[in-house]
């Protein structure tokens, strides 16, 4: 090989190596108190097959919400303690003609009252995983004893329970933990990789949600103004009466250590009646 | 060359706590008002009651260990691990299909845990260990211990919420070697077994097989929980048992 070609080859090799190293050892952008991330979430469900009521097949309108993550303090290991607020605006257009005006107005008030309580604390790791503090311990019995109560009283008690801020916060936490299940798989497993190159694949055993995923780096691309690594994550779970599948694409900013977007598809199939339900969720970090 | 006897075949009774984040998320997003949510909450409570019934009934799994091999059979899945051959076979007992992975060529496996980096359960004071009378369990002599202690959780651990919990653990240990004695955990983590199972190993007699263990948290309160497991039909294996480590021939191979 001629010397100039050898030098060029060495130079190209060094540049490639330096680029790889810069990805691997990219300095984490330190988060600080007051930092805020906002994700926009669009979710849509679809049911097919089986024998559900006909209205189940009606096209469901996309549901929009946003998840605001505000850093309140920083742990010694760099993990940020954050306050998460979910805003799920009242879908006025979808529900405009769904009954008498007073019913719609009451529904809107109830929705907006509940929306105020959709907030809780969580942890945001240095790698951009949003970890929840879901408490599965037995909760205090808030319901009144329904024995001897009229149906109206029982209904009032049930409505009071779901209007409880603690219950709404728990629902919101469950909702967010579902949305971030796959993005967290990506953020937490990328943190344990020494190299991320297109075509790389690995298997993830997640103790967080008792699931296993096959993850693959499919490439890099500009995504909403950032250089993002594009990864696919697939999972398949078999149960005696059903199967669950996840097929997702996640866009991860390796420099900023943050998930910038995701397209998440959850599919559940019931063997007994052949019904398939699909929930598609798009998650995008708002700049 | 004949192989020495294997270690044991056991039946374990276990409970587990599934997490239903995506399911709950999808369900909650469908609700449009408080009345619907109330109905949904009732459904969730019925689901929780069914789950509680399933958990209280327990489930049985079968394990076999032989020369470093492991066979684990649950309700609908059979797993055979043969480290010396670099093979892991996972068979679906419902669909009668099997997937075999060669660990030399398979992608790297990464285990992630949302509790990483969090402070582990901590002991408050010293645990009190009381020796119980010996017992015969499934024909095997076992030594009994009751350990009581208070643990402090800095975060909710499955069945146990944040804060202090009084725990009581009863354990019966035999002289047999425990083939799963590796990966010991801290004493406080052992004692939080009533919140979330951590290990079937014994910390009172490390390396010995536990035949029975029950761990109760907050027994005198409305939030009290008890998780237990019991092993039975424990016996030594020999070469005639090697077929245990083969997936039945009629199972269809998956790519």
Q: Give the overall average pLDDT of chain A.
A: 81
CATH fold label of the largest domain in chain A: Lipovitellin-phosvitin complex, beta-sheet shell regions
What is the total domain count of chain A? 2
Structural class by SSE content of chain A: alpha+beta
- Strand order, largest beta sheet of chain B: 8-9-10-11-12-1-2-3-4-5-6-13
What's the multimeric state?
Answer: heterodimer
List the chains of the largest interface with their residue counts: A-B, 65 and 51 residues
Mean of the pLDDT scores of chain B? 80
Q: Helix and strand string of chain A, N-terminal first? A: HEEEHEEHHHEEEEEE
Largest sheet of chain B: 12 strands, mixed
Number of helices of chain B: 3
Shape of chain B: globular
Any idea of the CATH class of the largest domain in chain A?
Answer: Mainly Beta
Strand composition percent of chain B: 35-45%
Q: How many beta strands in the DSSP annotation of chain B?
A: 13
Largest sheet of chain A: 11 strands, antiparallel
Unreliable stretches of chain A (pLDDT < 50, length at least 5) are 5-27
Count of the separate structural domains of chain B: 2
Annotated CATH architecture of the largest domain in chain A: Roll
How does this model look, in words?
- The complex is a heterodimer of chains A (287) and B (255).
- Chain A has two domains: 1-28; 31-286, Lipovitellin-phosvitin complex, beta-sheet shell regions, CATH 2.30.230.
- In chain A, 26% of the residues lie in helices and 38% in strands.
- Chain A has five helices and eleven strands, in the order H-E-E-E-H-E-E-H-H-H-E-E-E-E-E-E.
- Chain A has an eleven-stranded antiparallel beta sheet.
- In chain A, strand 10 (258-270) and strand 11 (276-286) form a beta hairpin.
- The longest helix of chain A has 22 residues, at 3-24.
- Chain A is globular.
- Mean pLDDT of chain A is 81; it is low at 5-27.
- Chain B has 255 residues and is an alpha+beta fold.
- Chain B folds into two domains: 8-111 and 237-254, no CATH class; 122-223, no CATH class.
- Helices cover 15% and strands 44% of the residues of chain B.
- Chain B has helices at 21-30, 34-57, 187-191, and strands at 8-14, 59-66, 69-73, 77-82, 87-92, 97-102, 108-112, 122-137, 140-153, 163-177, 208-217, 225-235, 252-254.
- A twelve-stranded mixed beta sheet of chain B has the order 8-9-10-11-12-1-2-3-4-5-6-13.
- In chain B, a hairpin with a 7-residue loop joins strand 11 and strand 12 (225-235).
- At the A-B interface, helix 2, helix 3, helix 4, helix 5 and strand 6 of A face helix 1, helix 2 and strand 7 of B.
């Amino acid at each position: 090989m001629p010397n100039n070609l050898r030098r060029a080859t060495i130079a190209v090799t060094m540049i490639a190596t330096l680029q790889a190293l810069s990805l691997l050892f990219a300095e984490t952008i330190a988060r600080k108190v007051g930092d805020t991330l906002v994700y926009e979430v669009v979710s849509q469900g679809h049911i097919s097959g089986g024998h559900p009521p006909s209205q189940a097949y009606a096209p469901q309108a996309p549901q929009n919400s946003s998840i605001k993550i505000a850093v309140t303090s920083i742990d010694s290991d760099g993990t940020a303690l954050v306050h998460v607020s979910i805003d799920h605006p009242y879908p006025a257009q979808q529900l405009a003609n769904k009954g008498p005006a007073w019913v719609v107005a009451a529904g809107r008030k109830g929705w907006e009252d509940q929306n105020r309580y959709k907030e809780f604390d969580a942890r945001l790791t240095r790698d951009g995983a949003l970890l929840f503090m879901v408490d599965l311990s037995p909760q205090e019995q808030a319901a009144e004893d329904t024995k001897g109560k009229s149906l109206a009283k029982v209904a009032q008690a049930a409505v009071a329970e779901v209007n409880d801020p603690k219950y709404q916060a728990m629902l919101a936490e469950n909702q967010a933990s579902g949305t971030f299940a796959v993005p967290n798989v990506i953020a937490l497993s990328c943190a344990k990789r020494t190299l991320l190159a297109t075509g790389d694949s690995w298997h993830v055993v997640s103790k967080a949600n008792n699931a296993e995923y096959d993850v693959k780096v499919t490439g890099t691309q500009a995504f909403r103004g950032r250089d993002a690594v594009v990864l696919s994550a697939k999972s398949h779970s078999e149960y005696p009466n059903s199967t669950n599948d996840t097929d997702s694409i996640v866009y991860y900013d390796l420099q900023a250590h943050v998930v910038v977007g995701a397209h998440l598809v959850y599919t559940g199939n019931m063997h007994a009646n052949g019904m398939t339900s699909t929930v598609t969720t798009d998650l995008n970090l708002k700049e | 060359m004949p192989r020495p006897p294997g270690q044991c075949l056991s039946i374990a009774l276990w409970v587990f706590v599934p997490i239903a984040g995506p399911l709950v998320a999808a369900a909650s997003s469908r609700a449009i008002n408080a009345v619907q949510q109330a109905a949904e909450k009732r459904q969730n409570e019925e689901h929780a009651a069914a789950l509680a019934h399933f958990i209280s009934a327990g489930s049985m799994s079968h394990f076999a260990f032989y020369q470093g091999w492991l066979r684990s059979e649950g309700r609908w899945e059979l797993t055979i691990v043969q480290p010396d051959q670099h093979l892991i076979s996972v068979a679906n007992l419902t669909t009668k299909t099997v997937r075999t992975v060669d660990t030399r060529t398979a992608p790297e496996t990464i285990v992630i845990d949302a509790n990483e980096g969090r402070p582990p359960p901590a002991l408050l004071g010293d645990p009190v260990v009381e020796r119980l009378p010996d017992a015969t369990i499934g024909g095997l002599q076992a030594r009994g211990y009751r350990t009581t202690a208070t643990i402090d959780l800095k975060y909710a651990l499955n069945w146990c919420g944040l804060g202090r919990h009084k725990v009581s653990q009863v354990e019966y240990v035999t002289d047999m070697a425990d083939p799963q004695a590796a990966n010991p955990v801290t004493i406080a983590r052992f004692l939080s077994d009533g919140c979330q199972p951590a290990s079937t190993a014994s910390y009172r007699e490390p390396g010995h097989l536990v035949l029975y263990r029950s761990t109760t948290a907050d027994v005198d309160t409305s939030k009290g929980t008890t998780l237990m497991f019991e092993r039975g039909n424990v016996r030594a294996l020999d070469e005639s048992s090697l077929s245990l480590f083969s997936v039945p021939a009629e199972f269809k191979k998956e790519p």
